[in-house]
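Dear Dr. H.,

I hope your travels went smoothly. While you were away I took the liberty of generating a structure for the chain from your last submission, since the lab meeting agenda had it listed for discussion. I wanted you to have the full record in hand beforehand rather than looking at slides cold. The sequence, exactly as received, is reproduced here:
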Amino acid sequence: MKIKILGSGTILSPENRNQAGYILQNNGVNFLIDIGSGILKQMITASIDPLTIKAIFISHFHADHCSDLLPFLLRRHLLQRGSNRQLKIFGPQGLKVWFAGQALFQGKWLNDYLPSLIEMDNREFVFSGLTVQAKLNGHTENSLSLLFKGEQILFYSSDTAFNRELIPIAAEAHTAIVECSLPDGVQAEGHLTPSTTGILAAEATVKKLIVSHIYPQNDTDDLKNKIAKYFAGEIIIAEDFLEIEW
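The corresponding predicted structure, in token form, is as follows:
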């Protein structure tokens, strides 16, 4: 299993940290986890062919996690007409209504070649050698954390406050991508801080922690040390275009 980080930042981040997006490769198959603004350009820079993406997993509908979906679909269509019919888009409850609003003004290029839309709940979904489980995390009414089971197991927190209901699902994972938005002591409603990121990873007993979704205030040289006070495993501070394999 391999992760390429395309976006480790937020909507307030400088140019070295794009908004959220990750390529997950399992058994040679590429999946995209979240698709915030700029992710299409990041894919082009990284020489990732959008036609190789078999599915997109959208964790929630905040713009920094989904706003490049239409540009991505249009690029696929222009490269290969009809290719979007082979694409699956997984997302929270409300995905179909949300997507219909996006598609309303796009015309034939999208509406004649619609991708498959799958609204996720607590069931497991199996697709192209990957088993995916979603868990509501409370960041918004329908936002999800995701567990990916393939050659290895990956937990993706997406945006979330500290939520003990996530620990049992995260505990299945070897590696976790967990947000760490703001410093301790700064109001971080709906988000994690170095202490809560570390505690979540420690209580889930993951082996490798990839820290991402980092706001500028938290993007400091000692961020890893702050988290290490609470988590004794391997800590990787995400950087755009970093590739991690396990």
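Two observations you may find useful: The chain is about 25% helix and 30% strand. The two ends are 6 Å apart (CA to CA).

With kind regards,
E. W.
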